[in-house]
Amino acid sequence: MGAQCYGADSENGDRIDDPSEDALFMMISDLNDSDNTFVVVEPDEDDPVWCASVAVLDEGGYEIVRRDTTRNEHEVTTATSINDIAHNLTIWMAARDFPGRPTRQVSEI
């Protein structure tokens, strides 16, 4: 089993360590407008440099917030497709820096 890098926590107390795209889909699908209104994904460290959240909107759909202080990113969007949200979050998280993971180097050929 590999080291835990990040976790997804929902308002109702559910937690999934290193969630897959399918796990994010399930957590977002379980959101409602009364007692489980959001999911937060962030690294398992004391002062995380990035995080993402998905929250239910009163008028329907979801608000997605992505923040990464190391890249000076803060993006707020809305969407209705849970599949698209889970897919896009998975891609976005794959580009984040994780403690203990080697950094990518780009070389010119």
Give the gist of this structure.
This protein has 109 residues and is α+β, with helices and mostly antiparallel strands.
Question: How does this model look, in words?
Answer:
- There is one protein chain.
- Helix 1 crosses helix 2 (about 80-95).
- This protein is of the alpha+beta class.
- Strands 2-1-3-4-5-6 form a 6-stranded antiparallel sheet, with helices on one face.
- It has helices at about 20-30, 80-95, and strands spanning about 5-10, 15, 40-45, 50-55, 60-70, 75-80.
- Helix content is about 20%, strand content about 30%.
- The radius of gyration is 14 Å and the shape is globular.
What would the principal axes of the Cα set say about the shape? Answer: globular
pLDDT < 50 stretches: none
- What is the number of E strands? 6
- Succession of helices and strands: EEHEEEEH
Radius of gyration: 14 Å
Share of residues in helices = 10-25%
Strand-pairing-aware structural class:
alpha+beta
Task: Indicate the mean pLDDT.
Answer: 88
- Identify the strand order in the major beta sheet: 2-1-3-4-5-6
Q: What is the CA–CA distance across the termini?
A: 36 Å
**What's the total helix number?**
2
Q: Biggest sheet, open or closed, and with what strands and sense?
A: 6 strands, antiparallel
Strand content: 25-35%
